[in-house]
Amino acid sequence: MSHGVALRMCLGREMEVFYLPAYSPDLNPDEDLNGDVKQAVTAKPLARSKGQLKQAVVNHMRSLSRRPERIRSFFRHPQFRYAA
């Protein structure tokens, strides 16, 4: 959907439009998560297969699920307040 079409859909309604940059990894919480996963997986012995790599990622994601404060930290940037 084009920017203009989306804007016209919002006009006259009780909607707030947030303009996000086309690509800005520093404002994207999943980039922080990706970096965290990469750091954790590469800190361990190298995976020798896709299965081992997948298991390492799954294990790290499970460990993150038990650390809600760590997950919240990915959203602490002031620009992410719109999502809260």
From TrEMBL:
<feature type="domain" description="Tc1-like transposase DDE">
    <location>
        <begin position="14"/>
        <end position="54"/>
    </location>
</feature>
<dbReference type="InterPro" id="IPR038717">
    <property type="entry name" value="Tc1-like_DDE_dom"/>
</dbReference>
<dbReference type="InterPro" id="IPR036397">
    <property type="entry name" value="RNaseH_sf"/>
</dbReference>
<dbReference type="Pfam" id="PF13358">
    <property type="entry name" value="DDE_3"/>
</dbReference>
<dbReference type="GO" id="GO:0003676">
    <property type="term" value="F:nucleic acid binding"/>
</dbReference>
<protein>
    <recommendedName>
        <fullName>Tc1-like transposase DDE domain-containing protein</fullName>
    </recommendedName>
</protein>
